[in-house]
Amino acid sequence: MVARLTAAHEILEPDEDTVSDVRLDTIGAEDLEFLRQLRNAERRWFFDQNEVTPEAQAAWHRSLAAHPNNHWYMVRVGDRRAGCFSIKVGDDGRAYVGSILLAPEFRGQGVMTQAMGAAMDQLGSHLRYYTEVLADNDQSLNLFNRLGFTPRFVTLERTAR
């Protein structure tokens, strides 16, 4: 089962337990192996659970420029790579948030909440943000809840037999 969530985004202030030096960056060639390894380690949370090869990762990176409405963000804490996510802005005023990856050592510190909140602020509050999350992915459901997303649709799926 997949929950589809929509957001009424608010600016989030970090509390005392959160990391304060979170920043957004573009994804460079030097980030690809880190992201590939992180994606493969966390692939159980993705709809496509196939392992990503170095060649496929490089091809994906080359294709980013062809999709200017799909904003990819590298998340850094200080100078360290922490993870990534994307926001695909549609012509209909909606924006799909997805492909979220965060290294285990940065979880539970408000890193992704700050990063995604900043990106949504940058892209604008006029957009209607939405996502899809696997129903048993509690970490992602909690993240989106903190960002102001609420369940709107539920997708039920029957896998191939």
How would you describe this structure to a colleague?
- This protein is α+β, with helices and mostly antiparallel strands.
- The chain has one domain (2-155): Gcn5-related N-acetyltransferase (GNAT) (Aminopeptidase).
- It contains four helices and seven strands; from the N terminus they run ββααβββαβαβ.
- It has helices at residues 32-41, 54-63, 111-123, 138-146, and strands spanning 2-7, 22-25, 70-77, 80-89, 94-102, 128-134, 149-155.
- A seven-stranded mixed β-sheet has the order 2-3-4-5-6-1-7.
- A hairpin with a 2-residue loop joins strand 3 and strand 4.
- It is globular.
- The two termini are 16 Å apart.
- The model is unreliable at 1-14 (pLDDT under 50).
What is the fold named in CATH at topology level? Aminopeptidase
CATH superfamily: Gcn5-related N-acetyltransferase (GNAT)
Mean pLDDT: 87
**What quaternary form is this?**
single chain
Shape: globular
The helix/strand order is EEHHEEEHEHE
Which second-level CATH architecture applies? Answer: 3-Layer(aba) Sandwich
What would you report as the Rg, rounded to the nearest angstrom? 15 Å
Q: How many helix segments?
A: 4
Q: What is the helix fraction of residues, given as a range?
A: 25-40%
| Number of self-contained structural domains | 1
Largest sheet, if any?
7 strands, mixed
Strand residue content: 25-35%
Tally of strands: 7
CATH classification, class level: Alpha Beta
